[in-house]
């Protein structure tokens, strides 16, 4: 494919993507294929000779689309949103076209410097403490990770290295292995599974602490666990506090947890994971839920969930970038350059992989074209739709709301056993007109209705509720 054909085929693909997104509401959100369907539709080996674009293009609808789960459908209400917008898609197109691998400043100065500016833009939109900004005058700054899972792992490994270095300095006779064996980290019982996974990779103990009836980890639980563990000779070093848990959008009490973690108390690295909910804090009415973040050492949220930026774009800030780079920094000769260590970071020291895409382009495009007010309007619209769904649930005496609705998630269930709710969930997803996912907290199984797609409107919420009521009627009227 030469440049001339690329121009023509590129226009065709832009039209295809636009048509797909504009008509996505007509597609069933969950595919009906069975595992292994695709292997039957393509050859066992790559072609010996290249095929034409026309041959490739016709297989998009034959091979790919039957197996696509349509995350951007207004009938998709599972998990959490994954953003999509035309400005973000254009940013990804340009990033792919430029094709730089911006692991150091010199490998593409614009890649690094735009990211520095965008992370400060975002931090100011969220009203984060000045210590997290490159322009804050301290050691802090932000970096775009791939996912919140990566961000949590980076924070945990940075905290681990920081504690190991401190203890070895104070106790030179201790080996690294002796220290790691005693390290213990904490999270709430409702924290995302990636938090526990980070501890597995980091080879440290992770203890899940109980939450209150609102899904919040409180200071008393943390302090009690720390004191008990210290009495047993363990070394508490890390807390992952969550704002907007995956199951229920619960919020850990940062104002209570933060002072317990600070160096003048127990000297624990507090990381705040706000993967989904973080976007909402650009709205002043939600920002108080983040109060206490000033006590944390690191903070993360995913613009690719709710801020119109396509996957992947996960924003991580740290108060002391030296503590992060200290965990990952290596300087082989082939990566050195004349300007390292000066004003701009070499982001390879801030992440797990070496290579990185020019992800700040799409963030720049989105922030400029939507503006803060445009993004606030989208978030407020989605929260309003969630409350409208909540009202529909409350209007039916057969159902109950499991947790208060704060953001764009409604947790609800049929009054009765876990088993009947499991059956209802299966009926809904087997029906395939809408798609949602369940969860289970404190032995209570419930359904999650998330407002996911940018294009979701009141009519889509009412349609979903009609489907749920219809399938509930069928379930409750069927012979036992």
N-to-C order of helices and strands: HHEHHEHHEHEHEHEEHEHHEEHEEH
User: Major beta sheet, specifics?
Assistant: 7 strands, mixed
* Beta strand count: 12
Tally of helical runs: 14
Could you say which structural class the secondary elements and strand pairing correspond to? Answer: alpha/beta
**How much helicity do the residues have?**
40-55%
What does the oligomeric state look like here? single chain
Low-confidence stretches: none
Q: Mean of the pLDDT scores?
A: 93
Shape: globular
Strand order of the largest sheet: 2-8-7-6-5-3-4
Distance between the termini: 62 Å
GO molecular function, one term: pyridoxal phosphate binding
EC number: 4.1.1.28
Protein name: Aromatic-L-amino-acid decarboxylase
Pfam families: Pyridoxal_deC (PF00282)
Short description:
It comes from Lymnaea stagnalis (Great pond snail). This protein has 14 helices and twelve strands. It has 480 residues and is α/β, with parallel strands linked by helices.
